[in-house]
Amino acid sequence: MSEITRDVVIVGAGAAGTTAANELRKAGLSVAVLEARDRVGGRLWTDVIDGAMLEIGGQWVSPDQDALIDTVAELGLETYDRYREGDSVYVGPDGTSHRFTGEMFPVAPETERVIAELTERLDAMVAEIDPDRPWEHPNAGEWDSISWDSWLRAQTDDDEAVRNVAFATGSAMLTKPTHSFSLLQSLLMAASAGSYSHLVDADFILDKRVVGGLQQVPLLLAERLGDDVFLGQPVRSLEWSGPSTGSGGVTAKTDTMTVRARYAILAHAPVLYSRIQFIPALPRRQHQLHQHISMGFVIKVHAVYDRPFWREQGLSGTAFSPYELSHEAYDNTNHGDERGTLVGFVSDQNADDVFTLSAEERKERILESLSHYYGPEAKNPIVYYESDWGSEEWTRGAYAASFDLGGLTRYGADQRTPVGPIHFACSDMAGAGYQHVDGAIRMGRLVAADIIEEARA
To answer: Could you tell me which residue ranges the Amine oxidase domain spans (predicted)?
Structure first.
């Protein structure tokens, strides 16, 4: 077993871990990044499947994501606009598809009024939320004790309005059933993007893509770290000094390596903390916290065609319906590719349900749902692939983790609190950019700055 010594050991080579490692190196601290997978990137993964380049993980860049935008520019990467010319499609409760333009779904005038009123009310509530400290709002306790679904249904008995407002943070972002998380968790999700209106505006939240794929961000950051990144090295144990003995350092052990360091950063999803044996055990507070946070679940469906046929029909590729198996879908054609790619999403309970089916039947049902938006040609892609992060050993869900009812006010303030020399950084605990690559980069920078300040003290 090899043994090395560094100032900081970082567990996880995703965007948070590689960002933190580079910031620490710039400050003159030595690092070792231990990654369980055989690749860099975490929940960012660009791969070629049956000859088609697919963004298996995160991929979009929105205008408010300054940390990501700056990093993309600094790495010399180029971006391009998501295709959005033409009509969007909405499928209503009776299964009829409607073409429309603009942000408002083509619903009955009364339903449109209710959606507009709820959106305005939510924007006002979100404006009062600090995404870094949502639990400090005067109404946080109340808002965290009622589910997102219950709150919406207390505002109106218009079921279509409720479903359309609810799915932006439910199926689309937190990827959990709307009865399973709180109003406050939903407001945090919106506050992390600047407003609820931003979150429901596909042209804002899904604005640009990176030429060649977003995984290049952590790949290029890891490239700068050279031999300090170690792949295929899941950390089995982490010994650390207890509070009574001060910050005496850490010892991280994998199956083939031992890394001794002054500090550790856990830069991976919090649902994986339990995969590491901590010696001594983490404090009671952390043990409780980690039992109240869980991953959502969404299948990202990639369907590649010989051409973007929907454009010939004057469709943008943007499609929504809270009644469809695939609740949203977009034109995901790669930069400079003559083939056309659609990306659809199957979320929460629907995702659970289709995995009880055979692979062939699941594919058939998902493509049938896409055909309700784009017509029968959608049923015959030349490449079909499902991103199933729920089966990933080192991820266990998507897109990120969120608290159960009441968990955010009870434990949220402790998510980032260091335990002795152990620090925590990932998109799951970001404020701005929560659940996004932008948030991962912000958290990597923040934790690196904290350690640099501590090391110099």
So the answer is: 16-452
